[in-house]
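Continuing from the previous page of notes. For each protein in this section, the sequence appears first, followed by its structure tokens. Read the first protein now.
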Amino acid sequence: MSSLLRKMSCLLSIFYFNNMSKIISRDEAITNIIKKKLKKSYKKNLKKTHVEFNKQLYSLLSKKKLYNFLRKSFIQKMFFVHNRFFIFKELIKLKKDPNWKFYEKLLVEDNVGNPIRYFLYPKSSGNKINHIYHLSILNDYFKLNFKKISYVFEFGGGYGCMARIFSKINSKIKYCIYDTELVNILQFYYLRHNNLNVGFRNKDQIILKNKFLKYNSNYKKKTLFIANWSLSETPLNFRNKIINIINNYEYIMICYQETFEDINNKNYFNNIKHKIKKKYNVKIILNSFYKGNVFKTQRHYFFLAKRL
């Protein structure tokens, strides 16, 4: 039923088209690189929701026909919000923001993946509006100059949308996405098509990681940790490894839902707030616009922090 509703809502954007000719013309070269990276690995450190997703993603990547990947229902379910009405509320808030001119430039959507344009603002997509709205919330509380951020660590990067946004904010930014092997490959596809220096080596500007290493514990200024509904959907034994490195960053932005499967995220993140409050100014903010979907309504929150 949810898949059917997504397809129906796509029809609201039926008159808005992406120019896919350049994407298709260079698609084979990029998918050939992907083929060398592809491994059937999708079970480690995953909840059951994501095991099924990775099976579908493996099938998609194997077929080497990715230029319409943002039209796939299972991708939309996990990574791509499109024609939802709460997005319009986020857009209105962005337009009223003193930084609207800055946000407006970032909202311009790319053609990679053939994204569904937001029917009430076809310059962008619902997903990109949603991501930039999240950044605006962080700015509302901590007056953050995003242009000065030099390094971002994103735990669970979707298909690479946030990394793409930061590449527009600062063309020299160093960005690391930690995700599963298969999702890293999808991120590589999206970001390489956008002509970005992305790869699996530390010397790449946008680094794709899927193995947890002992990260340097030294705190650095002008850095940001992001986890949008990723950390809150990860098994507790593994998410605790990630929590141990958030003290490295000057700013933290985590989005989460009240519960996920058998985990009480509200209690979990309240405990994290208590643990780091001596080092950070922490705000837990109710997401006033997003309340889930018709099949499951629940509260969602922003966990925002700035180093003292």
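Done with the first. The second protein uses the same format. Note its length before scrolling.
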Amino acid sequence: MKANQTMQHLAKKKGGRVLVTGGAGFIGSHLVDLLLDEGLEVHVLDDLSSGKLDNIDSRAAFFPGDIGSPKDVQYAASGAGVVFHLAAKTSVPRSVDYPEESFAANVAGTINVLRAAQEVGARVVFASSSSVYGEPPADGSPFLEGDRTAPESPYAITKLTGEHLCRVWERCHGVPSVSLRLFNVYGPRCAADGPYGLVIPRFIAGLSGEGSAPVVYGDGAQVRDFVHVADVARAFLAASQTDRSGAVINVGSGAAVSVLSVLDAVAEGLGVEARAERLPPRPGDPRATLANIDLASSTLGWRPRVGFHQGVADLCRRTA
């Protein structure tokens, strides 16, 4: 069955309507675009604290509001068959300084979303984070969904709590859900001061002369798992279709890319010299963060399509 046929089947009793919280943000707006292209009626709930109104396709119905308000969430979720919950306070440093703010938005807000989904009989796809794992394995092996979790920031704690809330809401209230642990997401609309795929837009800004010079900490051999936002949007769509309710699934590329490789790819894409300021290693900076994506493949039928160099080259062309 094609994706749009399956999705329409899931939301049939609701008239093909879905809600995306945080739909004006980086990842959320790409998901909105995909859902609209699938022929669905899309509601967007966003307070525009970090998202941009210009990111929202005019075909979507925009509901200005806050996930911290039960009434706002219930109103936007009316008639929805699926709720994609991406709205959150995503800054790790800010969560350390203002943990109450993170918990109010990311925990209490998730409860409001789950209650609204319960009320309208919708399923939930929750945007979690690879940060729930904490320190990566010493040998650099990929994270598996069954690995222990040891969050190291209030933000990471809120995301792990969100996963547990989703499971509890299914057990207690029959609300089906899937949680996606996102790794380093990058792509168009990713801000250089945002939390996703941060090094890529910063390197592009620096090497194109629109920002401060790129900085490489330590030897630059530390690796990350970068996954393109278009592939992440596809993962959310696939997660809304699976019958594996309650699953927690990694969404990454499954490929390790070093910081120096990122610098070289950006320089190549811009046609400039790969130059960067070299600074000492940052305390606590992990050597390797990598996703095992076998479960996403077997459960969702999903694998990334956009190769790293292809994705970076596209971003560089957009900058030129």
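What the second structure shows: Residues 99-120 form the longest helix (22 residues). The two ends are 40 Å apart (CA to CA). We return to this in next week's lecture.
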